[in-house]
Amino acid sequence: MKKFNLMATAAAGIEGIVGQELRDLGYETNVENGRVRFEGTIEDIIKTNLWLRTADRIKIIVGEFNAYTFDELFEKTKALPWEELLPMDAAFPMNGRSHNSKLHSVPDVQSIAKKAVVSKLSDFYHRRTRLPESGNLYQLETMINKDHVIVTMDTTGESLFKRGYRVAKGPAPLKENMAAALIMLTNWYPDMPFLDPMCGSGTLPIEAAMMARKIAPGFNRDFACEKWDWIDESLSQKVRDEADLKADYDKEVDIMAYDVDGNMIDVAKLNAQEAGLLHDIQFKQLAVQDFKTDKVNGVVVSNPPYGERLDDKRSVEKLYKDLGKVFRPLTSWSKYFLTSDLEFEKFYGQKVTKKRKLYNGYLRTDYFQYWGKKIR
Fold it and tell me: Is the full-model pTM beyond 0.85?
């Protein structure tokens, strides 16, 4: 089976986690800013789309080269093996990006790269009229950085964070792949208690339950490449069947999802039900300051409100103080909070063990980590 040069794209700050996921799946990796390179067959493309929890997309690297003129861009793009990838009726829109390069006009980059692909396919399929572009989608992109061009073809379709279980949304929901990354950055194992005291639409506890059950995050959705003419449907089914066999529905888990807003608990329950995990998560309407537990060696992961607007600031500061009052005494528990408020430590009342810079969408945030001392 043919091997492709591939890249898994990722949000800034979590490329290393994507790299670790790929290594855990058995791939050799090269981690770069915003992406991780690896090699694989079509089966690997389906498998990584299905299993990667923290990546955004899996792309085929069709080719890469340096280009300093539009003629060079055209000729080198045309020379790539498009006839091996695109059938005559393929729909192949071209996206473009350019950074610190001589070819800085993105519309021109898109237009010329697209013309190069059209020229190659027209020659190959002996077409004198326009290509129909009436078939399946093969999304292309030409990225230029410091005059180095990478031409890719997206295999994913809608971003991998769209797991398919979020049927109900709350305000400013955390993306599923970011939620998975936050959990992977903790010391939580599925035999430990897990709590999100401000669960919103339930993304963090649902992702935790999927990890505990070893459920492939892409099980509830399709990928663009599964519709491609040259990919055998039975191969896709084989990879999905193998993933189903890995799922563990018998393991006992202790995952708690609380929120002061009863409507958000209803939303979270709907999403958990869609993921098939409603009975694996203990949902409860509860204010942070009312939380009590006798459990030990647990992990708290939460994305509390940030208080971006001035009128929210006081209530958010009070919430951070309440978090400190409730969770500081739980010394065997590890606590992890994602917020853009750099004064979080001051109001929580404790210096962090570690802080990590992450981007939640385009918003710079910090992941405040308080490591517990396990009771043996």
Answer: yes
